[in-house]
Amino acid sequence: MSKKQWFCCLACFSAVTIFSLSARAAEDDGAPKYSTKVVMKTAFKGPLIKKVAAGDASDEEKKKLYDMLVALGKNKPPKGEADSWKKLTTALVKAGKAVVDGDAEGGAMLKKAANCKACHSKHKP
Ligand code: HEC
Fold first, then answer.
1. Is the dihedral of CA 75, 79, 80, 84 positive or negative?
2. Is 116 near ligand 1, meaning CB less than 6 Å away?
3. What is the average pLDDT across 60-64?
4. Distance between Cα 116 and ligand 1 center (Å)
5. Which of 60, 77, 79, 84 is the least crowded, having the fewest Cβ atoms under 10 Å away?
6. Are 113 and 91 in contact (CB under 8 A)?
7. More confident call, 31 vs 20
8. What is the Cα–Cα distance from 72 to 85, expressed in whole angstroms?
9. Ligand 1 atom at minimal distance to the Cα of residue 45
10. Dihedral (Cα; 67, 30, 40, 119), 10-degree rounding
11. Ligand 1: distance of its center to the CA of 44 in Å?
């Protein structure tokens, strides 16, 4: 790799790091806004997540779902291991973010991550 290429790599990598750090800081302020039960009732059982996954939601609804998924990840699961909870909710947050960012794969990611049974079998009391 030439010096110039190497520098480009480094610059790009730093930009990504800074971006993800600031995104994380934005997610980390304050207490969780929605309890797991509320997220389940409004987003998962309710139409919100389906609507967003199908690509029929407004920007506002997408943002609301994303906020809820971030809150879900911050909640403590009533049952099961913290590691597993983190893995499952991180996938949801990533998918929610992809949708908000207009990623074409967002809906499919969301459908895959919102696997009711996979999470309930481990974390629903
Ligand atoms: C990332 C994990 C996770 C996923 C994915 C998930 N759930 Fe849940 N769900 C939970 C947990 C944890 C509870 C128990 C909450 C409690 O009792 O505090 C729950 C509870 C519920 C409840 C009961 C809420 C209440 O009032 O007690 C419903 C209904 C529900 N989920 C529906 C769904 C549906 C439908 C899906 C799929 C589309 C889904 N959930 C996906 C974790 C998940």
1. negative
2. yes
3. 97
4. 7
5. 60
6. yes
7. 31
8. 10
9. 35
10. 100
11. 7
